Amino acid sequence: MTTFDxxxxxxxxxxxxxxxLQFKITARxxxxxxxxxxxxxxxxxxxxTAYATSVVQADFEESxxxxxxxxxxxxxxxxxxxxxxxxxxxxxxxxxxxxxxQFIEPA
Length: 107
Fold this sequence. Notes:
The chain is an all-alpha fold. 80% of the residues lie in helices and 0% in strands. The termini are far apart.
C-alpha cells in the first residue's frame, strides 16, 4: 500500500467512526428527551422506559428532528401538558449537550 492509500483508509475509518458516534449521541439525546417528556406526563418508571424507546424509534421516520418534535408535541399535548414547539426544541438542545457529554467525557 502506498502512503496515499493509508491516508485514504484512515480518513474513511475516521468518517465511519464519527458517523457512528453521532448516531449514538442522537439516539441518547432522544432517550433523554423521552425521559424528560415522560416525567412531565407523570409516567411510571416502566412506562418511562417504554416511552423513551418510542421516542428513539420515532427519529427513524424521516431525516432531521421534526419527527421527534411532532411526536413529543402530540404526546405532551394529549397528556394535558402545557408545552409549545420552542420548549421542546430547547429541551432537545439541552439533552443533546448532555448526551454528547456522556459519550465524550470520561466516566
